[in-house]
Amino acid sequence: MRQPIVIAPSILSADFARLGDDVRKAVDGGAGWVHFDVMDNHYVPNLTIGPLVCKALRDFGISVPIDVHLMIEPVDRIVPEFAAAGATSISFHPEASAHVDRTIQLIRSFGCSPGLVFNPATPLEWLDWTLEHLDLVLLMSVNPGFGGQKFIPSTLQKLRAARQRIDASGRAIRLEVDGGINAETVAAAAAAGADTFVAGSAVFGRADYSAVISDLRVRAESAVA
Questions:
Q1: Which residue is catalytic, options 67, 135, 178, 195?
Q2: Average pLDDT per 10 consecutive residues for the chain, totaling 225 residues
């Protein structure tokens, strides 16, 4: 069951000197979610943000869903902190958890929607054992760790395969794509099955957030109309 289109700007590309204002500008411009790229300089070669930033945005008044993507290892210790800080959904990489099913249950036990993230070379077979417990499947269309990378075209085939699995499940599971999403790639990703689109520099790197977000949404919706 395909869900309504959501554009989820990644704050990795936002102006951290005025983060609250920048995120609010994106939300006012039509962002349905706010996406958090959490990196640990261990699982991926970069270091970014933690639960304090999530809580700060909630305290600032950001009320839309906060979509936390954990690129960290191990996973379980930080889940309760992000849940307490106001995360709506928490996704993680199966390679980063010693017990994937246990981590999924942990996320849900704290009132958040669990998601599983697939790197470009990670097989979808993990879904054979987890899909019925997930609310979100996130496919990386770049290798994780850095913003501003180019979309990997083979992700389209993987999106189609993931969409088939989700539709066969009969459950309202979101299919999210992250990496190189912009005006040139969003329609193809939507046609392949994605309904949730993470866009970093494509949004925060522009002067008019509202115009960019609207354009991305229209292109995605037109591809599946």
A1: 178
A2: 93 96 98 97 93 98 98 97 98 97 98 98 97 98 81 97 98 96 97 97 93 98 93
What is the pTM assigned to this prediction? 0.96
Q: Is 178 a catalytic residue?
A: yes
In a domain, 98, yes or no: yes
Catalytic pick among 22, 37, 67, 135: 37
- Tell me, yes or no, whether 81 lies in a domain: yes
Total number of domains in the chain: 1
Q: Domain range holding 165?
A: 6-224
Q: Is 212 left (phi over 0), alpha (psi -120 to 50) or beta?
A: alpha
Catalytic annotation on 40?
no
Give residue for tokens 């700007």: 9
In a domain, 1, yes or no: no
Residue 47 lies in a domain: yes
